[in-house]
Amino acid sequence: MVKRILLIAVAGLVLAAGVYYFMSRSARETPAQQTAAASLPTPQVGIVVVQPAEVPYPVEYAGRVSGFRDIEVRPRVGGLLLKREYEEGARVTQDQVLFRIDPASYEVAVSRAEAQLLQAQAAVRQAEENFNRIEQLVRRGVSTEAQLEDARSQRDQARAGVQLAEAEIQNAKLNLSYTTVTAPGTGITALESPPVGALIQAQQTLLTTISQIDPAYVNFSFTDEEGRAFRALNERREKPISEKDLTVELQYARQAKYPQVGRIDTAAQRVDLQTGTIQARAIFPNPDGLLLPGQFVRVRLIGITLPDTIVVPQQAVSQGPQGPLVYVLGENDIAQARPIRLGPELAAGWVASEGLKGGDRVVVDGVIRVRPGQPVRPVPMDPKAAQTTGTPNASAPGARP
């Protein structure tokens, strides 16, 4: 029992001695630490002076390519399909021969019409001679006026018969030409067509479909809120942005940029009840057929700008307890934390919709070395260089309006 009491007493003395030693050491080191802190150099930081300006605001949407026009190829005459002159699914050009229908019966029709024309021409000659003969007899007083009128009527009917026969020839030749079916436009053909030897019915049988892809349509949609925001933006402008001021770029095939530039073609004047979006359509030249119907692309609208806008580089933005903030230099280069409200993200940085004004000096490089209320040594930076200098703050919020 006595040993246990002695052990407890010794342990208490050792603990007390340790506490005293560390407290006395802390008391001795505090002035030294304060001296070392005071001797640290003022941190150097890179700053930019923000000014309101009109900045480009490209916007992107998901889109899908569609053909400019789908053309159904149907025969104008019926008959047996003799031959298909193209490969199914291939690209064809306007007036290219696609199908050949058996022309035999139509060639016979042409010959029949030509024979009928010869008969009509012979009838005209006979009627002309009869009219001339009766006309001379009337002058001699041998024939009557009634006979002359009958002869004139027969002559006119014979002439009309010639015109009818000529029209029949034209119709027969036209039907004969329809036995060769040509492409009414340039585009991509469907993968299915009637087999050779099939009986083709005039105006009914669908031979193929040609999708005209030059130019090509690209359909996309935007929300009603985005539409209202664009109208509000236009109201702030002296000269509103029109569809003619906008150009459209495409990205496809692993972010590859489509070489042709398009334009806005039209936009629906109603909101889709199922998606709550407004449909829009752009049109692009597609001479090489790179854009295919059904293809997914990224639509990028160029030409929208934000007037009187302050943009701060991404690496200048930090996340504080109350939200995003930047460090602004005041008098004597004292750093101050300034809460801001972020707008959309641009290539140059974040739009600061609230919290900053023209002429503010914002810390961009060396943010991690800044302490609120402490002086810094500012070094001006080129705003363009500030966009690529440093690593964007990982805690920067992705806030959008």
TrEMBL record:
Domain Multidrug resistance protein MdtA-like alpha-helical hairpin span(s) in chain numbering: 111-179
Ranges for domain Multidrug resistance protein MdtA-like beta-barrel: 243-301
UniProt xrefs under NCBIfam families: RND_mfp
Listed GO biological process terms: response to antibiotic
Protein source organism: Microvirga tunisiensis
UniProt protein name: Efflux RND transporter periplasmic adaptor subunit
Keyword terms of this UniProt record: Coiled coil
Matching Gene3D superfamilies: 2.40.30.170, 2.40.420.20, 2.40.50.100, Helix hairpin bin
Residues in Multidrug resistance protein MdtA-like barrel-sandwich hybrid domain copies: 70-206
The Multidrug resistance protein MdtA-like C-terminal permuted SH3 domain, residue ranges: 309-367
Region listing for Disordered, in residue ranges: 373-401
Location within or outside the cell: Cell envelope
Main location: other
GO MF term (any one): efflux transmembrane transporter activity
Coiled coil: 110-175
